[in-house]
Amino acid sequence: MKITQNNSFKPRTIARINSKLEKKLAAYVAVGAAAGVGILAADRPAEAEVVYTPTNLTLKQGITPLDINNDGVSDFRFYRGGYGHGSRLYILQQDEKNLVFNSATFNADPLVSGARIGPKGAFKEDEDKAWFMAGWSEGASGVSSRSNGPWKQTQNTYLGLKFSVNGETHYGWARMTVNAKTGIVATLTG
User: Fold this and answer.
1) Residues 6+ away with beta carbon under 8 Å from 55
2) For all residues of the chain together, what is the average pLDDT?
3) pLDDT in tens, 52-93
4) CA distance readout (Å), 87 to 80, 147, 149
5) Which end of the chain is least crowded, N or C, by CB within 10 Å?
6) How far apart are CA 160 and CA 166, in angstroms?
7) Which helix (H) or strand (E) holds 22?
8) What is the pTM of this model?
9) Number of other residues whose CB lies within 10 A of the CB of residue 98
């Protein structure tokens, strides 16, 4: 994941798939062609890539842009804002194709390490294009406070993301730590 810093990607390397799997795929293509169905016609091996960028960025009050592919365009935005005696943390959709993993309307789901996301994942649109993460409020007397939301106390937890790069759909994670005990402190860690 890239934040709006001007970091450059390393050159991509092509990862070869297991030769046994490659033979099975070739057989599948041959069967499809023999049946007159051009299901899978590829002139080069399939490519997959995992790009990980460690970071330590504490989200400031207001808007913090998230530029995943480092093209200078914000793909998502974090909003950490205050109101009266409290504050809220949201992840905001920047583009109509970019969505956040959420099994319940309005909330961004915190995911554990290794959680699988993909085309069948819970990427529901929100009409406001904003998913709630955490909230904190102080009592009127200033004595009591409470926190709420699925991210109110998370440590190195993952935010599932669906995003478009050059018209192609990709899936990824942003690793975060959020503490909403006495206000909201949120840090993007990878």
Assistant:
1) 1, 3, 188, 189, 190
2) 75
3) 777 888 998 999 998 888 888 888 999 998 877 788 898 988
4) 7, 10, 12
5) C
6) 20
7) helix 19-34
8) 0.69
9) 22
